[in-house]
Amino acid sequence: MIGFGQVRHTRLAPVRNAFAYGNYFLLLPMRSLQLHGGGTLAYNRFAPLSFFDTDHGDGRGPEQGGALAWLDALLEKEGIGGASPGSHPDPADGEIWLHCYPRVWGHTFKPVSFWYCHRQDGSLRAIVVEVNNTFGERHCYLLDQPQFGVEQRAAKVFHVSPFAPVEGGYRFRFMVTPDRKRTVARIDFDDASGPLIETSVSGTLEPLTPQAVRRALWRYPAMTLGVVLRIHWQAVKLFVKKAPFFGKPVPPTSFLTR
Fold first, then answer.
1. What is the pLDDT of residue 81?
2. Cβ–Cβ under 8 Å, residues 133 and 158
3. Separation between Cα atoms, residue 172 and residue 174, nearest integer Å
4. pLDDT band at 37, cuts 50/70/90?
5. What total of structural domains would you count in the chain?
6. Which end of the chain is more exposed for a tag (fewer CB within 10 A), N or C?
7. Per-residue pLDDT for 64 more than 70?
């Protein structure tokens, strides 16, 4: 599946800054993808629009089971594993849907990706929020027993922006329409003084056809490069507005926050 929509970001304090950009994303059934291949999607091979396993998790390639093997190992360690039948009483042994940016002309940057981990009956068992910063670092937040439309919380432990402290917490909320054609992921950040940043990624889903791929490349010919450029442009605006600046701390020792 491919989703066409918007990224929205609003900083509430101590200076206000807001933006909204049109973009697109992939929503991939990872178990099916590994079994049957990418079809229209260029899977682990160069193309104008493609997906590579090495862009996620611990960077393992397809010969090591790819990103899905990494995720199954992570879930297994956390007592949610579904790769080994019968190993856990309530496993994520159904489809794993990955919401992420693709590679575009070989370039990628994925500020955040969402792994929706389901049971065999199709119900949601867990969500893994995979975050990358512009320093080449990565961290994951595991949301156990989430529900669509219900707020989930996690303490912030990973440096993302020099204009936001590594303290406070995230509020996550994931929504999907009954027909599964529109999805919204909200991540709001609160510091010690209250709500600081509100963000959302939304889109309308459609099959990943050659026509949809051409439309994505025509509308956003260098989307992932544009993501990086816009991050730095917004940083310049915050600097000019004299937003508080926070130095980069040492990354957390654990790759996962639960």
1. 81
2. yes
3. 7
4. confident
5. 1
6. C
7. yes
Contacts of 64 (CB under 8 A, 6+ apart): none
The residue among 204, 227, 149, 148 whose CA lies nearest residue 3 is 204
CA distance 210 to 226: 22
> Sign (positive/negative) of CA torsion 42, 60, 114, 202?
negative
Sequence-distant (6+) residues with CB within 8 A of 164 are 189, 191, 196, 197, 246
Q: Return the number of other C-beta atoms located less than 10 Å from residue 86's C-beta.
A: 7
Res 166 pLDDT > 80: yes
Q: What is the C-alpha separation between 40 and 50, in angstroms, rounded? A: 10
Residue 36 is part of which domain span? 2-257
Bridge partners (DSSP) listed for residue 24: 4
Could you tell me how far CA 100 lies from the centroid of its own chain?
5
- The Cα 80–Cα 171 span in angstroms is 22
**Residues 153-177, mean pLDDT to the nearest whole number:** 95
Mean pLDDT, residues 46-66: 96
pLDDT tens column, 118-131: 999 999 999 999 99
The pLDDT, as a whole number, for residue 198 is 97
Q: Where are the beta strands (DSSP E) in the chain?
A: 2-11, 17-29, 42-43, 49-51, 96-100, 103-104, 112-118, 124-132, 138-144, 152-155, 169-176, 182-191, 194-206, 256-257
